[in-house]
């Protein structure tokens, strides 16, 4: 093959940025020589946007580079089947595989990651409506009667505000010929006298304006100071209104959540959340780490999350009318991999035995240093993590739940894309991560989806004919089943006898919704005619198996932690459920399938995103921030991957609800009563 | 006048940078509309370079903007007479004034600052050869027998080296599945165990490579650490050679001096010095401050000195073969105005009563933040000053002379463009600045020059016919008289009776070298035929008056300080002479004119640039750096401008050697013996 090098663009591109020349669009992924003698057009439907690519260009790559949001959890390896698009016209070279059937391909469906463009084409990209962005912080919209008192609004209002940022009106002594020390010296002296803060650091940019500001304001000024570092953040005329804000951010594997906090009143001036755009490089942590090993992969992942953060900041500032210059601190929480990617530090060894992070605690840096825009030189702090798979988001959650301050035994369970748990009280804490896998986020389940609009989130099976009734997020026609729906479904199937204790279908009960199609048994949850995509929404034995393994991982994690300290399920005084799944889960169903401890439902608290709540508390009080360091150092980390007891417990958990029924008295009663 | 705006360049220019279009050179000083319909050429002789300017453009500005080094101490105000050039052909509009006579103008000489270009011209720029760059640090080339022991090479070799920078070979514990703390944690632990340094700060750029470096080198690495801040500067394979260097820099009003120091051996790997290019904006501190008030003036002054520093660094690195990445610290010393300009902080209020600095002590910043190149992110420190007119250069000098460590009384005298003094011992110190003016640098003296090649630096008057014999720097034909030459000349004139005690010429002694020309009496030092510029080199009564005022300021400063603490000239155990003038001065002559105390000559030490020597010591030992902070805080500053005793002393000093002769027994004896 001959390459035409003339007119080639040799440049770096970030995702979503696209270089245009006079007539053509080229895709030089880094410096890459391509045959640009033939360029084909790709028309995106339904939008009608047209892009142009060289012959044989990878279709998924072309779409991603052009800013189109193509779902994929395997990062383009052809194993997740999520980057499916439909070719409306034109020629591509695509290969069938496990994740796409011949019949589907006959209808024009292909996996874009496995397709090469061979001519002008028209592509239909499935439109997944996002659930309306809504922050799921513990302090808002808690289900009635399920609010754990220590974290509700009243409690936060009572939290002693001892913020990082201090504002103080200062009168600086006027110099005379006999007292002609420097402006800086007299300023520092006045601040020390008024606030007690020593070793005040005044950056050059403030010094440059200091002499004029002091004289123009008759030596009366308002100073804004970082009490923690002694850094003078701002100095302004005493008469001007002072405002300063902070940002609390949780970087979840799936979702970013941000609060804009008025540090003078401790009120939340605005909240926003958005999907983590890194999803397109891989749905879970492992796939992200794998992507980071590619050339420039780490940089792409970093740029991707920073880009989304910038958008959230811009939105919050715009909506609230707050000036970015008034934002002085940003407090970031997230799991270890997300935090590594946030700082641009390689997460490679998080994935390799013995699973160590580069750092659990990072130095504070300026926003600009990380590429964060709009908030000037605000200082960025992050919450200390415990280990590779027990990150700062968990430390933050423990702070938010006050687990480390309670005398009685608590279990903290963060069920997001990963499952992390901490058991303990004010004396001790032990934590672990149970690699639940992405099943509850819809991964590894054919009709599984994230909690988007159109997701089935509740399921009840009619006793007589085994028909499913369901509730859909956003009251749309269903597109798939999300985590809470899957847990409900699994519980219902077990209770109603659709499946047995091993998760196998009972084929002899006259279940007309159990159908054999494409060489597998499928239990139909929503019929083709009712679904948004006009295809059946169903569950298979393979799906069920994946779900059972996920729930077994969570429960055996809990049991292993308790056994490690010679305690039992019955000793748990309170369960704090956090995370995306933790907010919407039907605990009753989760108990039925043996995922959560079979204890009084009133002992469960549903807290949503405790990671961002903890970050918010740290913004309000630097003592709380110091407390997170203590928490992180106090939690003993248990590595389950080499724990033999965990393995035994896990295997026992591969039955419904468990091999060992004595911990599930309620489930036993339910089974007999039905 | 009509302006043609088409094709105009609207841009900012730094000095020496010049915008070229296809055929013309334009001079838009900031955004300025000029008539560019007529462009005239300026041919620079002897080089032959051609530049083009619009009609009526200021000639000095055109030359400066084109990178030509035009001398001027008044910043273009037309009062110093130093920007003189000769028009070889063509038309300019120039006005005669005090600093240029009609006769000179008839010969084509003009002041370029007062000239507008009216047509194509040819200009001859006087070529002043610079004295060969040679650093004048206390530790090198001291005149034999005049070395003060505590500061010679031997002593510095004995100085306990306790550098900022620490290198240590570290073995980091390998992680296991049961000890899976972060790489950072284990690194910090090993460093703490080996060095005792806590709170180690590891910047992001090092973190990003840390995991790979540790594993590739089997957990054995060499770390380079800033002991002071705990910042990890570098980490590299244990097997690689470690080298780290520091830069010691003195920013003088006239000269920059720099040492490149090997921080492992404490040896000086190279030294360089260069004129401070800010000279073109004004020769002394006051003129620089005035220039800084102009629009963008501060930025120009800052850029100017940083540019020169970059050149010095580049030269030192090139000559020594040292890599800029190995330079970790830069220690800067200088007077308060120079340090303000170095940091880009406005020096405005240094000039206005009550004369306060913005700061005497600045936070350490990274080199890049100031625009310093070639040395990566080396940290830049500066030495704390005492007051507006007693800067870090004096603190540094006090450190270098060990004045603050001596029990006996010392007088430290820094005679550069300004004169600063400190009197004291290990118990107390008092200091002041005597506004000597630029007379000893050649300012305010018609034939005065700086200590360049061709400067007359020693003068003896032949008794019989009052003819001067002289020595010239570089054995060239003379171009003028520098500071030490002027002091010699004044002393000789007084001793030989050429002038009386008031500094007036004795016209009745038959002195054939005293001539009346251009409406003034001139005492000829070198005849026209012998001089490089083919004009007489002479001194006038006005010049003498300026010199007497300068020497009176120095001596009355010394007396006032001593009286303040009830001490006398005779109590002085040692005089440390520092600064450009302090190195080359003939002390005997300085005593004769009543500038320096009339004490045993053996009590004088000549130390050259003590500012850079102090900075060098601070590089070797951070204890020395901490000591400078103590020194700066210990020196009591005396403001002479409002001191009535100083005024009395000053007026008494306007005679030769002084109104009060009792402090000058040697001079009296000399006068009688002649």
Describe this structure in words.
The structure is a homodimer of 674-residue chains. The first copy, chain A, has 674 residues and is an alpha/beta fold. Chain A folds into 5 domains: 127 residues, Roll (Ubiquitin-like (UB roll)), CATH 3.10.20; 73 residues, Roll (Ubiquitin-like (UB roll)), CATH 3.10.20; 140 residues, Domain of unknown function (DUF4445) (Nucleotidyltransferase, domain 5); 164 residues, ATPase, nucleotide binding domain (Nucleotidyltransferase, domain 5, 2-Layer Sandwich), CATH 3.30.420; 94 residues, no CATH class. Chain A is built from 18 helices and 26 strands. In chain A, the strands form 6 sheets. A 6-stranded mixed β-sheet of chain A has the order 11-10-9-12-14-13, with helices on both faces. A 6-stranded mixed β-sheet of chain A has the order 25-24-15-16-17-26, with helices on both faces. A 5-stranded mixed β-sheet of chain A has the order 2-1-5-3-4. The termini of chain A are far apart. Chains A and B meet through helix 4 and helix 6 of A and helix 4 and helix 6 of B.
